Amino acid sequence: MKNKSILLSVALAATMHAEQITSIEYINLTKISSSIANDTLGLKVGEEVNIEKINTAVKEFYKFNYFDDIIASTNNGKLQFLFKEKPSIANVEISGYKSREDDIEILKKQIGINKGQMFSSKKVKKAKEALLKELERAGYINSVVEVDIEKLNENAVSVTFNVNKGDEIVIKKVNYFGSENLDEGDFESVTANKKEEIASWFFTQNDGELNSEQLRYDGKRIQELYLENGYLDVKVENPFLEVDFASNQADLDFYISEGKQYLTNSITIYLNSEIIDPKEIYPELKLKKDRVFNIKRLRKDADYIKTLVSDLGYAFTQVNYDIKKDEKNGTADVIFNVVPGEKVYINDVKISGNSRTLDRVIRRNIYLAPGDLFNLTDFNDSKSKLKRTGFFDDVILEQRRVNADKMDLIVKVKESPTGNIILGGGYGSYDKVTVNASINEKNLFGSGIEFGLSADVSAQKTNFNLNLKNPAIRDSKYTGDFNAYNTNQEYEQTFYDLDKSIKGFSIGVGRELYRNFYAGLRYKLDFIKEDYEYNVLYAGTKVPNQDYVSSSIIPFINFDNTDDYSTPRKGFRAGVSVQYAGLGGDSKYTKTKTYFKTFYSLQDSYDLDWILRYKAQANLLTDNGQINLGDSFYLGGTKSLRGFKSYAFGPDDAYIDKPYKKMFSNSLELSFPLSASAKMRWGVFYDYGMIGVNSFNDIQRSSVGALFEWTSPFGPLQLIFAQPIDDKPGDDTSSFEFSLGSSF
Q1: 208 plus 249 within the same structural domain
Q2: How far does CA 64 lie from the centroid of its chain?
Q3: Whole-angstrom Cα distance, residue 505 to residue 466?
Q4: Average pLDDT over residues 650-678
C-alpha cells in the first residue's frame, strides 16, 4: 500500500512539477496536527510543486505508524493528501486465563498491548506470541490462543484473546544432588517450585504446579541460603527439569557444590573516627567473631553503618564491603570501607499531589525542614508517619541533589477519600436488624482534624455519638479530643434482661514526648442507669435498679511506629491506660487496660505480600470501694474473641454474680492479598481469650476462622467466619459477624 502511494505520486510528476502550490489540504488526518504535517511536508503555499519532497514526505508520514494508506494529488495548484488512518484499539480482553482484574491489567502490559494503541496485525501477532510464552512460563504446555478482532467503526476495533490453557506440569520429585549439610525442608522454605504433597488441595500443602518463571531464580535462592549458612564457595547450577509429557509430571534436579563452611574471623571498619569511632559500632554488629558467617547479617550490618553515618548528615554515604577467605582455616575476614562524602542540608521541601490536604498538615508530619542537616532515620520515619495519617493512598519521598551540600526533599502524595456519609442498615449476629447513619471525616477541610457524628439503632441498642480529635493543636505536638455519647443497650442473659443506659462525655489532651510516643490525660463523666427484669424462674427475685455516676480520670500512654494507617506491614502499636474512678460520683475503682499489636510482612523474606499480625490485650479491675455490675469486663465478639457473641462471657446474674475483674485475649492472623487495586484482602486467624472474677482463667475459650477485609470508602469493613474449637454447652456462639469502622 505504501509503495503504491509513492508510485502514484511519481505518476503525477508530469502534471505537478511546473505548478505553483495555491493551497495544501490534509483529508482524514486526526492522529497528528496540521502544524506537524506541514513541518513533515517541507513545502509552503507559493512554492513550486516538488515531487521529490512530496515522495519524501509520504515516507515520513508512514514512519508515524498511524496510517494504512496515503495518497497525494494536485489539481490546479491545490495539493491534497488523503489519509487512511489505522484504527485504534478501543478494548482488549483476555478470556480463559487469569480472573482478577489486577492480574489481567499486568498481563496486558507484559504482552505489550492495551487500549488506546494503534491497531496493527503485527502488534496483535507479537502480543499473541508473548501471551503463549507467558503461559509456558506459568507452567502450561500445549496452550492455544485464538484472536478475535471486532470492528466497532471505521476508527476503532476490539481485540479479544481467547486462551485455551494447556496442561499444567506437576512436580512429583525434587532432587538436590550434592546437598549434604542442608536438607529438603531448608530448600522448600525459600524456593518457589516444590514437589507435590499429600492433600495438595489444602492451602497449607504444596500443589507441585510448575512455576517456570520462578525456576530460573530458585537456584539463586538456594545459593543465597547457603551463603546465609556460611558456605562461601557454594555453586548451584541452573536447574534441570525432566518432563514426562504423557503424564504431565516432572522431576526437578538441582546440582549443588557446597564447599566448606566458614566462620567469621576479624571484622574491620574503615571510617573516619572524627565522624564515628568504629569502636562504638563493633558491639552492635550482627556478625560475630567465631560464629558461622551469614551474608544476610553482613548486609544488615552494612545498612546499619550507613544509617549511623547518614543520620549525621552524610546523605550519600557508601558502605562497601569485602570478604577475604582463608580456605585453609575455614575463616572469613570482613572489611567495611565507609565513604561518607559531604554533609548535606535540606534546601527545600517540595510537596505535590495534595489537592485538599493543607501543606502545613503534611509538613508537620515530616521530620526534615529547610536548613536541617539530612538524617536518614528522619527521612524514613517521615514517610511512615505520613502514611499513618490515613489521608493518602500513597506517599513517595525522594532526594533531589541541588549541589554538593544541598538537596531538595520531594514529597509526592496521592490523596485518598477521608470522609463519608452513611445511611443504611444491616443485620448483625447480636444486634439483629440495625439502622445507622453517620458523618465521618478524618481530614476536616484538609486540616487533619477528625470529626464524627453517628447514630445506630437496633433491636438491642441505640447509640448516638459525637467525636472531635485534633492530632496537632495549632500544628504543635499537643493533641486534643472530645467525645459525647448517649447509649442504651439491652443485654439478654441467662436469668435476666438488663436495660443499661449511659450518658456522658470525655475530654482529653496529650502530647508527643518522643517520636511516635504519646502521653496524655482524659476526664470521663458517665451517668449510668441499669434496669433488671428477671425471667419466670427468678420472678420472685428482687434486685434494686441501679442509678449511679462514674467520674474518672484516665492517664494514658501510646506508641505507634507502623508504616501505614489501614494495612500496616511493619512496626507495632502499644498502649496503657489507667482509669481512676472516684473523683466524685458513686463508682470507686481502678481499671487498667493494656494492648499490643505487631505486624510483619513476608515480602522481603519470601517475596510474598503476606502479613503476619499479632495482638493481645490484658485488663484488670481493682475495687477501691464500689464496683457496680456494669463496670465488669466482658469477653466475646469481634474485638476480643471471634466465634462467640458480644458479651458472651461476663456476669450472668446480678443477684449472685460479681463483676469480672480480669480479662486477657490475643489473636494471631495471616493476611493474604485479594485485589490490590480494590484494597481487598483475606486471611485466617486463631483467637484465644480468658476471663474471671479473681483470676484470669475462670473461663477459657478459643476459635479459628477466616475473614474478608476491604478498605472501603466508608471505612474498614470485615466479614468474619469463625468456628469455636472448645465451646461448652450453653455458650453463645457466632459463626458469622461483620465489623465496620475498625480493623485488626
Answers
A1: yes
A2: 41
A3: 9
A4: 82
